[in-house]
Structure formats: structure tokens, C-alpha cells
Amino acid sequence: MPVKAFEILGTLESQGCFPDLVLCNVLIDCLSKMGWYHSAFEVFSSLRELRLMPDVYTFSSLVSTICLSRQYVLLPLLISGLAIQPDLVVCNCLLSYFHKAGYPDGAVKFYNDMIDRGFLPDKYSFAGVLSALCRLGRTNEAFNVYQGIIRSYPGADAHIHTIMINELIKSGSFHKATRLFRKAAAEKLPLDLVSYNVAIHGLIRGGQMEEAFALFNQMKEMDVLPNKHSYNMILSGFCRNSNVNMVKHLLQEMVDGNIEMDYPTYKIVKNLPCESAYNLLLELRNLGLLPKVVQESLPYEHDSGAYTSFSSLNDTEDVLDFGTSSSDDLSDAVVSVG
């Protein structure tokens, strides 16, 4: 227990045995993990009295304490108050924390300070500064930085491309995001499942359903297997367009591939006036691939009477409720930035 630990520490100090920096760093780290944030800050404050100079491990532990306690307002004070040289890992953590804490301007300034200190940024540094610039509304500047990164580091991680595509979509620049993705694909730059999902999401939001489906098929050709987010996005898009043939095709693929359907997509599919689509829903249900909340709501019989009853029930619930789909929240579901 922390109380017992402090009792032992007090006994040692009374006998002239004072803690060294290593012990203080361990105390800060352990107290933070146990939720004793105030005590962790007290240990840090005692360093000056003990004539101990904080090092990079102290810095890392204190950053963790600030973020675990959600006292993000202390981050700028920490940066300006410590005369130590953090390493790149710590700097990248700070970039991320500045962004999460709602200080994107601080993240940009800190990134510039990193460069001035001679740090060579890596993919995490780039992710941090791109996210911060976009959050500040400086999307054009972020795009210029992105282009500079690609020129200087042609093998940049797929996450970098994904961040830029996602931020362009968020700002409403669907066509620019699509062009960026196509250019990256044409130049054989690294693109992963998340990159494809984000690009498909942008195409759907931009009303380009055919191109979204073409990209969905391209994923398979490039050996990037679509996941349940990919399928639910495309399926929701075709439901919105009332393309019953494509809905049936995708539902069959989901049955064959054991792909789960999410609840927002189910809400859209269930309202389609199509008995064959309904029967495929039953197959998904039998495979345990529908959301648990609706797993038992479908009748078990594959007959017209059951379908008619089910359709009538849907009409009383929410007629053609095409409001929310899985694609609306894709950026939160598949991509975590900064």
C-alpha cells in the first residue's frame, strides 16, 4: 500500500537514508498507476529539496501522471519548466498528448521545437503534426507538409496517408481525398486496410457509390481483405441507393464469408422491400452474424407469411430509416489519429 511505502520512506529519511533519483522515478511511476496522482506530483516536487536533477525517465513518468490524471493543462508548464533533453519517444508522446488534450497549437509549436533541437522525426512525429494542423483548420498547410514528407520519405508508413485522407474527408474535401488516394495507389505507396476503408468512406459520403465499390473490389485484387467495416459501409451505401441487386450480392458474400452485420446497417437493410434480402438476413441470423440485440427478433420460418409479418412490423417501427449508418462514424471506428 502507498501509505505503508511512505511510512518506510519516512523511517529511512529519519535515519539519514534519502532516496536517489531512481527510487523517485519508480515512486512517481507506481503512484501514477495506482491513481495516487497528487502523491506522484509531491514526489516530483521534492526533487529540488533532495538536490536531484530530473532525467528523461522522470520526464516520461511525469507526462504519464499528467495524462492519467487528465490534468493536461500542466503539459505546457512541464515543457517550459524542465531543463532536460527528452528522447524522440517522449517527444512523440507529448505530441500525441497535446493533441488529445485540446492543445493542437502547442503540438505544432512543440514539433517545430523538436526540429530546432535536431530531432529526426519519424512516422509518429509526422502523424502528430498532421493531426494538429488539421485540427487547427490549417488543412492546406497540412497537405503541403504531407507532400514534403512523401518527397523526403517515399517509404512513409500507410498511417501517414490515412491521416491525410481522413482529415481531407472530415473537412469536406472528398474529391481531393480521392485524388490523393488514387495517386498513392498508382505510385505503389504503402496502403493498408484502414487506408482503403477511409477512402471508401470518403467516396460514399461524396455520392460516388460505383467508385466506392470499384475500390472495394480493388482491395481484394491487392490482397487487402475487406473486414466487417468495409462490408457494412458498402452495404449501407447500396441500401441508401435502393440498389436491391447489389444488396443481395453483398449479403450473400457476407453469408459466405461469415461477415458480421452491425446494428445501423441492419436497421437499413431490414426496411428493403425485398423477400430474398430478408431470407439472407435469416441466414445471417442462423450463423450468429446479426447484432445480438436483434438476433431473436426475426421469425424462424422462411415463408412469405413470416416475411409479410416482419415487413409490417418494420413499417410501424421506422419506415425507410436511412438516417444513421456505419459509414457515418467510420473515422471514429477505424482510425485513431495522433
From TrEMBL:
Pfam families: PPR (PF01535), PPR_2 (PF13041). Gene3D superfamilies: Tetratricopeptide repeat domain. PPR repeats lie at residues 20-54, 87-121, 192-226, 227-261. Signal peptide: none annotated. InterPro entries: PPR_rpt, TPR-like_helical_dom_sf. Transmembrane segments: none annotated. SUPFAM superfamilies: TPR-like (SSF48452). GO terms for molecular function: mRNA binding. Keywords: Repeat. This is Pentatricopeptide repeat-containing protein. The lineage of its organism: Eukaryota, Viridiplantae, Streptophyta, Embryophyta, Tracheophyta.
